[in-house]
Amino acid sequence: MAAEKIRVRGQVQGVGFRPFVWRLAAEFGISGDVRNDGEGVLIRAFAGDVDGFVAALGKEPPPLARIDSIARAPLGDNVIRPGFSIVETDRSEARTGATPDAAMCPACRAEILDPGERRHRYAFANCTHCGPRFSILKEIPYDRASTTMRGFEMCPACRAEYEDPADRRFHAQPIACPDCGPRLWLERDGAEIDGDAIVEAARLLRAGKILGIKGIGGFHLACDAANEDAVRLLRERKRRPKKPFALMADVGAIRRHARVSPAEEALLNDPAAPIVLLGKAGDIPLAAALAPGLSVLGWMLPYTPLHALLMEAVGAPLVMTSGNRSGEPQAIGNDEARGKLGPFIDAFLMHDRPIARRLDDSVVRIVAGDIRLLRRARGYAPAPLDLPPGLKSAPPVAAYGGELKSALCLTRDGKAILSHHLGDLEDALSYEEFQKAAKDYSRLFDHSPEIVAADLHPDYRSTQFAEGEAERLGVPLTRVQHHHAHIASAMAENGWPLDGAPVLGVALDGLGYGPDGTVWGGEFLAATYADYRRLASLKPVPLAGGDAANREPWRNLVAQLEAAMGWDVAAERLGKSALSDLLAAKPVENLRTLMQRRLNSPLTSSAGRLFDAVGAALGLAVDRLTYEGEAAMELEALAAGISPDRAYPFAVVAAEDIRRLDPAPMWDALLTDLADSVALGQISARFHLGLARATAHLAQKLAGEISAGAIALSGGVFQNALLLRLVLEELDGCGLPVLAQREVPANDGGLAFGQVAVAAARALR
Predict the structure, then answer these.
(1) Which residues are registered as beta bridge partners of 710?
(2) Residues that are catalytic
(3) Cross-strand partners of 133
(4) Which residue from 483, 623, 663, 749 has the highest number of Cβ atoms inside 10 Å of its Cβ?
(5) For residue range 513-535, what is the model confidence (pLDDT) as tens digits?
(6) Banded pLDDT at 94 (limits 50, 70, 90)
(7) Which sites are catalytic (predicted)?
């Protein structure tokens, strides 16, 4: 036979792929070698059944592997060489991906619980099928010397496992044991506490204490989820009045507190081990302060040996929320945690394995039978995404997203690398971390962009950073309108081709900079990747008080009612209600003057602010939001499990060359229902159905007018599971594919992915 080189690209490093190749080589009589390099895995085959070998490569790869391509080429060296070996990594230019962190596998779980195993109760057990990857990675290609495990020299027993092709730890780079690996300890006030760290930590948690726990991607703050006093104290110390806390428990415990479908259980058990939003159920009490006003809780399984041992010792659900003060980045270093978290926790469960980068827990939910990723972080990032047909040949792009829920995105070789969640850039510390992450991704993936993409908003820190990068690198800057990027993100995730027909994009969102000088957020766009045209929007109303309206829903309620029927009429219809009394204490007349004179009151078509206004009308977070989306989330919760008996009406009106979806009839119906003391849950359900029906009907009409090839849905408001489900139901049977988002967030966490698609398309024109 002629010798061949076989190139395998994809997620093939740090997943046990080389040992898998070694075993297949023995099965098919292949002589040669395999190595990691900057492009993935390179195999040299000098003898044996190469055709059978290559076919088997793609059939049953290791659990964490994902093969994008297998290419064969002559080697030009036909000397038969005996045996098959794994050789040293070739440190060439990095053109391969990095593997996300993976939850503990069943074999490692069984091992740490088995008293006869040498890793019994060891908090850092892992193998080629599980454990830390991206969170410890410092360089590509992936091997131990390129990770934060470099400082832990393998003991003879671990070395023997590492070098044994028959062992599941064969070439497992984070391999460790109690004799040579990271160690765990419990400390209070800087002093280590005697005894078994897990046992003592569990004792403190059961006693109502708050612990800082170092995990894979950073620290968590933990307490007993059933202890009302502990949960309220954690809220006070963390300065997080109402935003929901994530919870950790085993599947059995989760089932006692939540409704878990088979799809949701599979998602809980996925190697990504995300937080899964599940409907509340059961009669076993948990603390009411976990998620005030909401009908869902975020649950995750213990995804590391440390977590599994702790959960077994505690025997009850735990709060497991990010280790930070509200709005700040998660702590990852031991000294950093002591300084930032020490003042408001009772003890630390600490270890000495360094964390290379901050990784929050990912957040997902199942809607209409599909996964919907709300926060893309640990377990998902930085797995590459395919660029759609037609965009794969574009020059490399770097895009820097928006201001909230920020993420960046790099493209090369037909792939997009969408970063993990980087936080809200309004916070100065989060912006510092964003800048570090931009350098980290650029270095790690050896990326040199030929185009930089940014949002249109000139005051976004991400835009200003992109401008600086474009100038520094001497490359062009492409500015992308916020909602065009949202729609392009949905198109690209669904593989819509560059030469496909225009789509009718529906972007229901918070706020985005509009080129007409208004603030957009409820948009119907005729869109290709390169261009868009605004066909319709929600009827604009003043954003009364500017940024203050993003925090104080009562302002949006006044603006909406003023626009719908005039404030005097609305106030009369509110009568002597509790809402009327609350608004009477507000400077409503001053606000009306600001709106009439257009002082600090730009017009906005924001769907997010409409939800805030409806929530305020129903008494939800009227005065002030304590976290983004609070009123909208509570409004969705009110409607949980309720079948609306009718839908509130919306009107479509013409305005110059654009149509407006006018909520005035909805407000008339809603105020009537309030006066008639209709149940708030029914009012919320009628609103959701009315908006969904009006959105879907207008989308179908506009799609027909432009001969659209599909309808695309995106924007942060589509995180609302009820609204998304209703819109999808209304569009069912419309005769067009509906492009909704799944593994790319519909919120601003997916914005950079849309920006790279737009920039790539414009570069190819």
Answers:
(1) 503
(2) 18, 36
(3) none
(4) 483
(5) 999 989 999 999 999 999 999 99
(6) low
(7) 18, 36
